[in-house]
Every structure is written in structure tokens, then in C-alpha cells.
């Protein structure tokens, strides 16, 4: 593999970016949980996880290379996030699979090679991976929306008037003033996760300021993002592009605390 320098190697993959595929950190566009995300790529849900390296070959074709050296990819991502250069060049012995296409949208391209395009495939080959259509709404777009709220929590939170969410019900049995049916269902199913653990990665916990945690939970037709010290937001398949706030109320704090205790966390 190679970086994006000026030389063109016919056998090289010019690395553009990389993401982790682990129980605690995976592209949620691929599925509601870690096993589902692995299945979307034809991979076994290996507990240690994988690294996904996205790049182009010398002809410009898009490829997603799956490697089992998770720590290498984690170091590369951390370095890039800090604005540092890092030459991500996995050993060929760590390669698990090379999949045509990219599952995520990539805004950059390798220099001195043709523009990004899907590689040619033969009959019987798996179709190239492709990011979801942002003009449509469905499970993948719903999960991407929840990811965006988690990343931009402060911006979303400041749009919510606390008085407006006081009336939102967070009781799983539907009692309370004018509860939203879909939100009620999502909270009830989230409560069920506490009693009967779901597949790995359905509930994830990550760092948040002030000693709090950011929670991400997904289920059939819904996604939840919350701060353990604040409110929650719910997105639903049946409510395109709608973000539904859930006030703290009497039930939400205990639910978030219980979910955080069972959630998987980044190493």
C-alpha cells in the first residue's frame, strides 16, 4: 500500500482514509450493531474487530481493504485527527479482504490517477460497496443522522427549549402527557436491552465533557443519542429527517445510567 505521493505504482493502493470496525466503534451506516455491520461486508464478527482502509488503485478504482491490525488503523486515525501525517501501510499478511467500492462517502481523491470509480466486476461478484443515497430516508440515513447529533451535540442541544421537552414522555408504558408513539416504542425497546442484552454494539458509550457519557443506541426502526447528564434525541424510520427530543423526566436518567453500564466502550 502507499500514501498519496506523486509516484504511481501499478500494484499500490493509495490510501485516502480509514475507519475502525470494532464492537465499540463501527460505521453505523452498515448496521444497527457490530455483527450486522460485519455481515454487511461479508465478515465474521471477530471480537477484536477490523480496520477498514479506503483507497484507490493505480487505475483510480475504489477499494475497501479490510485488515486485522486494528491498532495500526487506530494510531493512524488518531494521528490524522491531530493534524499529523501518518503513512498507513499495512502488512499484506494482515489483509483479510479487498472489497470493491467504498461504504462511506470520501471527499478526496488520490493524485495522478484517474478519478474515483467502481472497479469492473464479473457476473457473480459482489456488487461494489456504495454510501447510502442522502436524498432518501431509511435505516442507514437514520443512523447517520444520529451520528451527526452525537458529533455536534452542543449545536443540536442549543436549539431545544427545555420547556418544550418537559411535556415529552419518557415512560416505556406510554403514560404521560401526549407521548409520541414512536418515541415511546424506542424507549420501551431500550429498556428491554437492560433486561436482555442485545447484539454487541447496539448500545455504545463514548466520552463527553464534564464527566458525562454520550450514548448511542439503535433498534429496529429507531436510533437514540443522549448525554447521561442531559436529554435524549430519537430518530425514527417513519419520521423522515425528524429529530425528536426526550426530556429528562422521572424515567430517562435511570434508563441512561443502566444503558451506560451495559454499553461497549472504546478501548
UniProtKB/TrEMBL annotation:
Domain of life from the UniProt record: Bacteria
Q: Where is this region: Disordered?
A: 113-140, 163-183
Question: What is the protein named?
Answer: Integral membrane protein
